[in-house]
Write a structure and sequence with these properties.
Helix content is 38%, strand content 15%. By secondary structure, the protein is α+β, with helices and mostly antiparallel strands. It folds into two domains: 45 residues, Macrophage Migration Inhibitory Factor (2-Layer Sandwich); 31 residues, no CATH class. The protein has a two-stranded parallel ribbon with strand order 1-2. The N and C termini lie far apart (40 Å).
């Protein structure tokens, strides 16, 4: 029962989000070997000024062991 939550800045159209969700679901089915009816995809839009507190610190910095794709940015390096 994979449930995928995509956190991103606002600004993508409904068409873009629908297409992205369909492609992600297709890949999850193919790679994880589950049925399409078991996959759900949600989007959580986070304003850029809230990204550090709502996403970067709690999801990226606090749990690096969970990351299978590390971002190519560090919000604390200057």
């Amino acid at each position: 029962m994979p449930h995928i939550i995509i956190k991103l800045y606002p600004g993508r159209s409904e068409q873009q989000k629908t297409q992205l969700a369909a492609e992600i679901a297709k890949d999850v089915v193919a790679i994880a070997g589950c049925q399409d009816k078991s996959v759900s995809v949600a989007f959580e839009e986070v304003a850029p000024e809230e990204w550090v507190e709502k996403v970067y610190k709690p999801n990226i910095l606090a749990h690096p062991q969970r990351l299978y794709k590390i971002p190519g940015y560090d919000l604390f390096k200057k």
